[in-house]
Structure formats: C-alpha cells, structure tokens
TrEMBL record, chain A:
Transmembrane segments: none
Keyword vocabulary terms for this entry: Chemotaxis, Hydrolase
Full protein name: Chemotaxis protein CheC
Keyword NAD attached: no
Record carries keyword Hydrolase: yes
InterPro entries xref list: CheC-like_sf (IPR028976), CheZ_family_phosphatases (IPR050992)
Automatic annotation (TrEMBL), chain B:
Protein name: Diguanylate cyclase
Domain GGDEF: start-end pairs: 354-487
All residue ranges annotated as the PAS domain in the record: 23-83
Pfam families assigned: GAF_2 (PF13185), GGDEF (PF00990), PAS (PF00989)
Superkingdom to which the source organism belongs: Bacteria
Stored Gene3D superfamilies: 3.30.450.40, 3.30.70.270, PAS domain
Length: 207, 490
C-alpha cells in the first residue's frame, strides 16, 4: 500500500525500533536479564494480506495479546506467536525451565503483560515522538487458529475495507531462547490521515 | 408492536439503569479502586478496605503511595502514573511481580499470609478516572505450584528411568536419584546405603552432597538393636523418622558429628525389591529438625522404588555377565574368560619380564564314572575336584573348565619350572584322592601337561597347544603324572 512515502516509511521503522528498544529495556529490567528485541521487517498491508502472511510464516495455532488504542490513531494492536512457543517465552521470562502442556491461568496473564509492555512502548513512543496522544485499553491474552484471526483483529465486524495493518516482524531473544512473532497494528483508516499528518510534520521539522 | 426480544432488552436496560453499581462493586470478590488524574482514590470497594484494613474515610483522597510509603512495587507505581496521567492500560501479572500491594489475608488456621495478586489498570474512556482491579489469585498460584511440582517429579523420574534403560552405570543412576531428591527437597541431603551380602551391615554407596567423613562413619553400620534410624528402618521394613537428631537418645554418640555435617534429622526409607528382599536404605538428612510431609513420603517411596529397580537390574546384569564367563556347574571361569585372562597375563608377563605357567589337565577314567554311576555322580565329582584344585592356588591364579573333564590352570607368575612342577604334583595328589558320594567312593586320576611362558611359547595359542601336547605325552606315559612341554616348544 502506497499510503506512505519512502521517507515516511523509514521514519515509522525508526520509531518502531525505538519503541521496541525501550520495551526490551523495560523487559530486561523486569526479568533481571538481557532481553533483545529487533524488528527485521515492517510493512503496511490489508487484513487479508496480513492473514496470508501469518498463514505462510506461522503455525496454524497462535497465541497472542490484543490491546485496543485510541488517540491520534485508533485501532487494535496485537502481538502474535506460535502457540507452542509462547509458553516457552513466558517460561524464559520467569526463569522457569519446565512448562506444562497447556498454558495456565498465570501464564496467560504473564503473556498478556509481555504483550502489554511491548505494545504500550511501541504506541507511546510513536505518539510521544510525533508529539501526539494515544491511550490504550487493558490487554487480553487469546489463542486462536490463523483462520479465526481476522475475527479477532477486525475493528468493524468483518468489514476490513476501512482498516490498514501495520505488520511488524519481531525477534525475541533471551536466556538461550529465540523466537519470532508479529506485531500487528490494525489502524482505522479514518485515523490514518492524522497519522500521515503527524509524520509529515515531524519530517518537515527535521528539514 | 415491539418483538419479545426488544421488550426483553428494554427490560434489561431499565433493570441495569436502576441497579446501584456501588453495591455491585462492593459485592465483588476482588478489589476495585477508582483513581483520579492525581492518582488519588475516589472510590474503593469493601474488599479493598477489608484487605487494607482501613475504612473508606481513611482511604478516599489518598494515593496508594501515601497509604504504603516505600512499600509499593516501583512497577506498580509507574503503571498507575502512566494510566492516570497518560491513559495507558496495563496488566501486572503475578509471575513477573511477586509483590504488588502489601495485602495480607488470614488463612483458615488464623495466620496472616501475603495475598498473591495480579492487578489490572484500565483508564476509563468516558471519564478521566482510572479503574484498578486487584485479583486474588492465591488459589491459582497454589494450583500452578502443584502442577509444576508434579511435572518436575515426573521429569526427574523419567530422567532416572532413561538412565536405567540406557544401561548407565549403577553409581551414576544412584547419584542421579540422590540429586533428584535434593532438587525436590531443598536443604535436604540424601544418601543411599546398601546392605552387605550377609545382610548384617549397611555401607554408604552414594551420598553426593555429604562430606567424605559421612561415607566413613556409615561404613559397616551393624543392623541390630540399638541402631539408629537407617538400621531401624531395615528392621521395621518401613519409613523410619528421627525428626530431631539432637534430642534422640540413639543418635547421641553421633550428635557432634551430625552437627558438623549440618544434618539435624534423618528419614530412612528402606529399599525393598521383589519378594520383599530389603536391599538397603534411602536416607534423607534435613538441615533443620523436621518430619516429611505426605508429599515428601510419597516422593521417598517412589525414589526408593526406582533405586530398587536400579539395584536389581545391576544385579541381573552382573549375573548375566558372570554366567557368560563361567561354567555353571563348577563356577569356574569358562574358555572365554580364560582367553581373556590369558591374554591379559601375556601382556603383563611381556611387559614385566615374568615367567608364568599353563597346565592342561585331563581327568583319567572320568568317562567310566559317568557310564557306571550316571551323569549326576560325574557332575558332583567335577564340582568337588574343582574345589580341590582352586584350594591349591593363589588368588591370582586361574583354574578354568574348558571342556567335559578338561581344565586349564594358569599360574600367574612362576620363578622356575620346578615351582610349576610342585603345584602339578599337589594337584595330581588332590585329584587322585577318592571322593565319597553317599555309599559310593569315586576315584579318578589326572594327566597334566605344563607349558611355560616364555620358554615354550609367547602366544596364547602356542602355549595352549604345547600344554595340550604335553598332557597327551603324560597320558602316553601311563597317566596320573605330569609332563613338561619340550624345551624348544617342539
């Protein structure tokens, strides 16, 4: 989608890297160990395209965290992992070697917090750097099959025409585990204008 | 006319409109707080005042930081400020934040325990208030801990079983069992003590975390009256517990030593194999006076069973190894073991420049015994004669049965041909002496061929061949005598 110019796209990538870096710092402090996060890829696509990307890259069952946001952009953010690996991440975070076969109540909560920290930092960094406001709702952990995912991500019941997905690949590495997941920011297109506007203002100030 | 579902939803809406939300919040089994933009409490439900222990009037208008100066987890403080000021929603999970608010609750037994909690912080979108929900997850934590603990036991058990199955050495498996116990029961040292062959004394076989002094003390603990925990458990065939070594009469002689080794109690679980055979004791030595919980007892029982499996398997393997290398009738080494020992002795003699002797022995008249008195008589005779031969040998010499009535003796070292001949003379006498079997008196003699290393050969084959040839010469010379192989091995 050519909504953004190359410069604007680069700026978003830079801001996301900044946000992810801050999240990594916060997570490292939380677990008293080095947590490394990186963003190898970022693209703007439609919900069906995003679903196709998940289908291609991720196993059929996903675990994730959803969080709604509103402000200079409105929408829903999600952190998505292969379901089996999400437990591994939780266990690595809490320094536990063992994992039960199924995610427990407490692990679900921990996963929600991990997603929460990550998504809050990304959104807050984006807003702060662009001198904008954003607020977030509480996170919800969920698990779903890839085919059910659009239902979870959609802002308007099954009408994806008005939305745009900022899909961010994210690599985690901590305590000998490494795993790749996705951050998906489903943005209400009506608010994309104010996003674009904020980006242009920021770039204009740089010049 | 409105449909019935519209009527129902109108009804519900009007009911909801008239419900006093405050009462609803008070009735919740969890904490609810409403904070304003300055993080001050504007509402708290009954659960909160109960668990904080202050009345509404003391809470309203205060911030949590004011209520608990210096006691609020920094992460919680930061999250509250981020929510009240910047409207960021947040969850604080128990696993990542073990202490959030210093809330306590009374257990059924009346003691105060910290309350395990997770906290949700939700900025309300239609006002500038922030809703804080405190969840009591004590039960979930308990369930989770239980789940993880049983998972851990299962994994460790599986590891031990794998070691047993892959045939790791017995001592490695026993060490793993002790380590497993020590992982699951922190501040407990464990040891495995085995009953000796005679079943009268115990020796430490494995005690990975105890000092060497312990291994020494427990060496040869006599099983009998007046014994301490471990020997008692053998006698009772049941878990025996000494909760406090310091106040136990029977432990008095070892009290000082126990203190030095930092052990304060002893729990001894007998290791019982099939057919109720007691093999030893699995002992736990806690660093503080204590008795095992039901779960601990179960663990000891399971680990003792694994130990029994390990020990029995080891015994069986040893038995199989023995059978593969020995003659079942006489218990003497068989041809395989002889070859192995002969090879070893050749290398050693070569290295150290020793001389050694090989004697090939064939009984004279054994076939007649078998024919006239039956194979049972022959077998008995062989057993007795085998015993007589070994009696004439040093512990380092070998007597092997390599055929029906054929034996080979290897004298590990000899100084001269004469010393080998002397042994041959004694063997001849012993073999020629009658054997009483009930009313029967059985008597045979023997022909012996002697070959010496290096005089008659430097390989196993050459030595055996020359000894065999010399034996035939002895037969030809009239039996019941020995012959030395030809000087140059011809």
């Amino acid at each position: 989608m050519d909504l953004f110019s190359a410069d604007e796209h680069d700026l978003i990538v830079e801001l996301m890297n900044l946000g992810v870096g801050r999240a990594a710092h916060a997570l490292s402090q939380l677990v008293n160990d080095e947590v490394l996060l990186s963003v190898p890829r970022l693209e703007f696509i439609s919900v069906p395209e995003a679903q196709e990307a998940f289908r291609k890259d991720l196993p059929p069952f996903l675990a994730g965290v959803l969080q709604d946001f509103e402000g200079f952009i409105n929408g829903r953010a999600a952190l998505l992992f292969p379901e089996a690996r999400s437990l591994e991440l939780v266990n690595a975070m809490i320094g536990e070697e063992l994992s039960a076969d199924e995610i427990t109540e407490l692990e679900q909560e921990t996963l929600a917090e991990l997603g929460n920290i990550l998504l809050n930092h990304c959104l807050a960094t984006l807003a702060n750097q662009l001198k904008q406001q954003v607020q977030t709702d509480i996170p919800r952990a969920f698990s779903s099959s890839v085919s059910e995912l659009p239902g979870n991500l959609s802002l308007y019941d099954n009408n994806d025409d008005n939305t745009l997905v900022m899909l961010v690949q994210i690599d985690f590495s901590l305590r000998n585990s490494a795993l790749r997941g996705y951050l998906a920011f489903v943005i209400d297109l009506q608010s994309a204008d104010s996003f674009l506007h904020a980006l242009r203002e920021y770039l204009a100030e740089l010049l | 006319m409105p449909s019935s579902s519209e009527t129902a939803s109108d009804c519900l809406a009007s009911i909801l409109d008239h419900i006093d939300c405050t009462e609803l919040l008070h009735s919740l089994d969890g904490g609810v707080l409403l904070l304003n933009r300055r993080c001050q409490i504007v509402f708290c439900n009954r659960w909160i005042s109960q668990h904080i222990g202050l009345g509404d009037d003391e809470l309203i208008g205060k911030t949590l930081a004011q209520l608990y100066p210096g006691q609020i987890a920094p992460a919680l403080q930061e999250a509250i400020e981020n929510a009240c000021l910047y409207r960021m929603g947040r969850i604080l999970s128990y696993q990542l934040h073990k202490r959030l608010l210093p809330l306590r609750q009374r257990t059924p037994s009346g003691e105060l325990r910290p309350l395990h909690q997770s906290i949700l912080i939700r900025p309300l979108s239609e006002s500038d208030l922030t809703l804080i929900q405190v969840h009591d997850i004590t039960n979930a934590v308990k369930r989770e801990q239980h789940l993880r603990a049983s998972e851990r036991v299962l994994r460790l058990e599986r590891k031990v079983l794998e070691l047993i199955a892959t045939g790791d050495s017995m001592d490695d498996v026993l060490t793993e069992i002790c380590t497993t116990i020590e992982t699951l029961l922190p501040s407990v040292h464990s040891a495995i003590l085995l009953l000796d062959e005679d079943g009268k004394s115990l020796s430490v076989r494995c005690a990975p975390s105890l000092p060497p002094a312990f291994m020494k003390r427990e060496k040869g603990l006599r099983v009998g009256p007046g014994g301490t925990t471990c020997t008692q458990s053998i006698q009772h065939r049941a878990l025996t517990i000494t909760p406090d070594i310091g106040s136990d009469e029977l432990w008095r002689p070892f009290a000082e030593e126990a203190k030095r080794m930092n052990i304060a109690a002893c729990w001894a679980q007998p290791i019982v194999a099939a057919y109720d055979e007691v093999l030893g004791v699995l002992a736990c030595y806690p660093e503080c006076p204590s008795s095992p919980s039901d779960a601990d007892k179960l663990l000891l029982q399971r680990m003792a069973n694994l130990t029994a499996i390990t020990l029995e398997r080891h015994k069986r393997i040893e038995r199989i190894r023995f059978l593969a290398m020995h003659d079942p009738l006489t218990g003497l080494p068989n041809r395989s073991l002889l070859n192995e020992l002969l090879g070893r002795n050749l290398r050693r003699a070569h290295r150290e420049g020793n001389r050694f002797a090989l004697m090939f022995i064939d009984l004279d008249g054994f076939k007649e015994i078998n024919d006239h008195h039956g194979h049972d008589a022959g077998d008995d005779l062989l057993s007795v004669l085998s015993g007589r031969m070994t009696d004439q040998l040093r512990g380092t010499d070998t007597c092997a049965r390599i055929g029906g009535d054929e034996f080979v003796i290897m004298l590990e070292t000899v100084h001269s041909p004469e010393s080998a001949q002397l042994v041959a003379e004694k063997i001849l006498t012993k073999l020629n002496s009658p054997v009483q079997r009930g009313p029967l008196c059985l008597q045979v003699s023997a022909s012996i061929g002697i070959a010496l290393y290096p005089d008659h050969g430097v390989s196993a084959d050459a030595l055996l061949t020359h000894a065999d040839d010399a034996m035939y010469k002895a037969k030809a010379e009239g039996k019941n005598c020995w012959q030395l192989a030809n000087p140059n091995g011809q």
